[in-house]
């Protein structure tokens, strides 16, 4: 029994060591295999969704990882992830980078490393028109959001009397709102605007000007993967300087887009 315990301990140590070595070599590994594997959302416009014409995943997040892959001189492979699965997929080595509307938090930063902020928004609510004028109107109500998201945590703190119903993704939560199963859906304003823009009955809903948090998005990489993090950060700064980052924003959120919002941030080394 003692020998068995020692064997399992040795295997665990070897696993940790191999994982640490793998994490530190992502940049070299990606170059060697010629492919960057990115975990992205596939049902959350305009960040990541399946284009009805091409059947390809497109969006704001995809354009950013495409730029990183191009800078590396490798192909881009996309894998669909959810809010709950994205970090496990990264730490288990199934993807190289997370580009999936991921808010940077101190808790998450203990498990993975983040890039500089490449998008910034705030958490709000999507409701039926005329039903919400103040945060107090949401007290004691059923509110839908996504499992494993910061939105789930934030709304529980902001509205302790509310009943939080967590779905696998935000489109499911929005469907519950349309069916009258929840009173509101909460997540980042940019995501709510994207869902609303695609809704056939969008005139029935609105996003009140009630914000409960700031949400800075970062690209997620394995902990301690310094060379890769540095490369990604350098690329992001170059994209900001060249105007490429703003160009991507205007494409998905500019005045001519289906989800027009103002760009109230720039990519800097301080965020």
Automatic annotation (TrEMBL):
Keyword Transport: yes
GO biological process: one example: amino acid transport
GO CC annotation, single: extracellular region
Residue ranges constituting the Ionotropic glutamate receptor C-terminal domain according to the UniProt record: 35-255
Record's keyword annotation contains Signal: yes
Alphabetized GO MF terms: ligand-gated monoatomic ion channel activity
Chain ranges of the Solute-binding protein family 3/N-terminal domain: 35-256
InterPro entries: Bact_solute-bind_prot3 (IPR051455), Iontro_rcpt_C (IPR001320), SBP_3_CS (IPR018313), Solute-binding_3/MltF_N (IPR001638)
Signal peptide: 1-23
Keyword terms, alphabetized: Signal, Transport
Annotated SMART domains: PBPb (SM00062), PBPe (SM00079)
Protein name (Swiss-Prot/TrEMBL): Amino acid ABC transporter substrate-binding protein
The species this protein was found in: Desulforhabdus amnigena
């Amino acid at each position: 029994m003692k020998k068995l315990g020692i064997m399992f301990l040795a295997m665990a140590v070897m696993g940790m060591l191999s994982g640490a070595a793998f994490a530190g070599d992502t940049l070299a590994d990606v170059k060697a295999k010629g492919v960057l594997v990115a975990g992205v959302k596939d049902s959350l416009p305009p960040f990541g969704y399946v284009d009805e014409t091409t059947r390809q995943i497109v969006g704001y997040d995809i354009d950013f990882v495409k730029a990183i892959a191009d800078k590396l001189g490798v192909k881009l492979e996309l894998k669909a992830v959810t809010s709950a699965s994205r970090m496990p997929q990264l730490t288990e080595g199934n993807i190289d980078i997370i580009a999936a509307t991921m808010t940077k938090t101190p808790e998450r930063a203990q498990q993975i490393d983040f890039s500089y902020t490449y998008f910034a928004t705030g958490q709000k609510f999507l409701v039926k028109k005329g039903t919400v004028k103040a945060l107090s109107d949401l007290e004691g109500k059923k509110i839908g959001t996504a499992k494993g998201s910061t939105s789930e945590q934030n709304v529980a703190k902001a509205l302790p009397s509310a009943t939080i119903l967590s779905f696998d993704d935000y489109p499911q939560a929005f469907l519950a709102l349309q069916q009258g199963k929840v009173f509101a859906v909460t997540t980042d304003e940019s995501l709510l605007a994207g869902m609303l823009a695609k809704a056939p009955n969008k005139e029935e809903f609105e996003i009140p000007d009630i914000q409960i948090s700031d949400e800075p998005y970062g690209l997620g990489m394995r902990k301690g993967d310094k060379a890769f993090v540095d490369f990604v950060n350098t690329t992001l700064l170059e994209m900001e300087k060249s105007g490429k980052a703003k160009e991507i924003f205007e494409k998905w959120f500019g005045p001519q887009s289906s989800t027009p919002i103002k760009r109230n941030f720039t990519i800097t080394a301080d965020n």
